[in-house]
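Local shape tokens

___
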Amino acid sequence: MIKVQPRTLRPGEFFGAPVIARRLGDFSLSMWRYDGGSSIPWHAHEKAYVTFVMRGAYREHLGGTTRTCATNAIVTHARGELHADDFATPAACLSIESDRPLPYDDVSAVVATPASAALGDRILRELRRHDAFSHLVIEGLLLEVFGEAARSRAGTFEPAWLRDIRAIIAASFDAKLTLTALARNANVHPTHLARAFRRHFGCTVGDALRESRVEKAKHAIASGDSLADVAAQCGFADQSHLTRTFRRITGITPAAFRASLRPTR
């Protein structure tokens, strides 16, 4: 992973292209567009906030884990939570901040249920309606959102053996790991490992391995290594395999990523 100085964003400050921003009582709502192939560097926010994914999807990185944020999902972020995002396809998101703490707003989670989708749609309608009662409606909806997030997190914290598997993947992205070998290491059945990994981390073991290799590839590319050397170092079969995987995960080619690192004049 490339070492960068993470930035802390002020209230109301987000990456992306702004579409609309509105103040409703104690709440600030803003809509943002993100281009396919774009990425957001590591950062944190001064306040806890909620994002409703209106269109598209993205991958969010938080330390050693990655979660998928798909259309109609509601994503809650605790205050000061360090994260980075990759948009393989275009996306539109509605973000909501509150001037005062709300119950459970320290919970970080992705809630993707019919109930959460309905909550997101209702918040969006209030943004468009914005009458004298909208801030009260939004407060009630956000309490439901945080309640759903807290409920979704209850009992879902990963066991120690699963954290160990994730650490092995992160440290051994250039090794020829297999699901069977990882399961043997954890003394569990491969099917149980596959299901538990996807439930807790939102991706398959293969997805996590590919993402770890791409993260190392980013670092090697930034260091100036040739793409052929990067492919060999990071466990890809060849440069073409690197390019296909890199583009699938980040939305751009390794060459385009290298070009984006060059300082603009």
In short: The first strand starts at residue 7 and ends at 9. The mean pLDDT is 84. Residues 160-261 form a domain with the Arc Repressor Mutant, subunit A fold (CATH 1.10.10.60). The chain has nine helices and eleven strands.
